[in-house]
Amino acid sequence: MYIVMIASECAPAAKVGGLADVVYGLSRELELRGHAVEIILPKYDCMRADQVRGLEISYRDLWVPWDGGAIRCSVWFGFVHGRKCFFIEPQCQQQFFNRGTYYGFADDPERFAFFSKAALEYLLQAGKRPDVLHTHDWHTGLVPVLLYELYAGAGLADLRACHTIHNFRHQGISGPHILQVTGLGRPEYFGAPDRMGDDLDHHAINITRGAILYSNFVTTVSPHHAWEVRHSDVGFGLGHTLHLHQDKFGGILNGLDYEMWNPELDPHIPSHFSRSNVGKKAGNTRALRERLLLRDAARPIVAYVGRLDAQKGLHLIRHAIFHSLQHEAQFVLLGSGSEHGINEDFWQLRCRLNDDPDCHLEIGYDEDLAHLIYAGADLLVMPSLYEPCGLSQMIALRYGTVPVVRAVGGLKDTVFDWDFSERPRHERNGFVFEHADNRGLESALDRALGLWHGEPALFRDLVTQGMSWDYSWNHPAQHYLGVYEFIRHQQDS
Ligand code: ADP
């Protein structure tokens, strides 16, 4: 099959978050299975050009119709760790992708609407006819709309579109002028509430709603989140639309890059280990204590690694810190926040606690330290309020660190409670709680600490059971191929 991904990120060349890892990891797995995969990205001035091999112009003078005129683009080609990537570079006054950072501008909807249109124009003009287009999040959500409304008639009739929503909180809300600049026009038609109109702002266009309507299939990043977005408020207003289109909507769990996250070979950790010699994990625990100046004590290390964002259950992370310290455990946090107030809170907490020999809080982004924490800690807490998929718990499992999670989204799909899961005992891999309050968290954390202190042999069984789960791209890629085949088949019928 010939698949083209159109996305705003691809790891590690252009990465802001998990979306980049998914685009890279899924593409890699599909290629390993013999499919032809190409990725179309914007050519950002801030991308990591050192991660792109052989970058050169492969298509000149791509004229993209825009706002009644046209913008000239060059299309560059290069390999991002083996993946074939095309980078679109517009030459225009607006400097769409030459702004020193990826997102955060008032005209983000226009920037990515332009990119969406340019990607289709490139396929058309360069004579590329993939079987499937796979788009990601609101940034490329106009691709299926433009494909159906403008490009099918122009020669791209046989292309099928699959769209993945990684985060429902960001839907791409724009003024109606987006319709005019892209050539869609007809604001009354497209802006209707059952088309692309937004529920909150009746004059606005909701790009994600358009993507849901116009794609042949829509996915989100875990089966349970696919249920939640239709039945609770974490669909952020799109639940009804998804209900109407539920026969073409499903959840596919993200995979983890098992090459990057491999405790047997990881260059970031001093002591390599696997399920059969999990005792060697202790070398990483020692290294972690030395690096963060924690005392050497017969206590488990409880960790949090992740963004400091309201979504992650900040009050419960705070509570987990104090509760662990009061119950014969150590606590390590590595967190980065984009909101000033949140960072400030955690800096204050850090000042208050860092003299404690059982606690270390590190505010910032540190890839190297993250690997050491996953390898050296005993427990990882993730008390998220909502979590579309979550990668941290899967990394923890791979590194023999037992996850303690709230039963939401992808966490519910990947972590099975040691005491209460309906799964057979040998498949259980962590601790799970329901309610987003202190008592809820304690109900799981206390059981985890109790097992570590009281039943070390059973705790070790739990660790090795967790390590035996396969959360690589192996299964998810198979599911995506099933979706691609399904929508290709629609074409024939
Ligand atoms: P989200 O996509 O909501 O940020 P995920 O759990 O899906 O959460 O993925 C988070 C990824 O980012 C993990 O690989 C995690 O290790 C990494 N990460 C998050 N914050 C940090 C940080 N401060 N330092 C290093 N790595 C981080």
Word description of this protein:
With about 500 residues, the chain is of the alpha/beta class. The protein is about 40% helix and about 20% strand. It has 17 helices and 17 strands. The strands form 3 sheets. It has a 9-stranded mixed sheet. Strands 14-13-12-15-16-17 form a 6-stranded parallel sheet, sandwiched between helices. Helix 10 (about 315-325) packs parallel to helix 15 (about 440-455). The mean pLDDT is about 95. The structure holds adenosine-5'-diphosphate.
Structure summary, number of beta strands:
17
* Alpha plus pi helix count: 17
Q: Enumerate the strands of the largest sheet in spatial order, edge to edge or round the barrel.
A: 3-4-5-2-1-6-7-10-11
Distance between the termini: 18 Å
Question: What ions, cofactors and ligands are bound?
Answer: adenosine-5'-diphosphate
In the predicted model, the low-confidence regions spanning at least 5 consecutive residues are none
Please, what is the average pLDDT?
96
Q: Structural class of the secondary elements? A: alpha/beta
- From the alpha carbons, calculate the radius of gyration and give it in angstroms: 23 Å
Q: Work out the oligomeric state of the chains in this entry.
A: single chain
Main sheet summary: 9 strands, mixed
Query: What proportion of the residues is helical, as a percent range?
Result: 25-40%
Beta-strand portion reads 15-25%
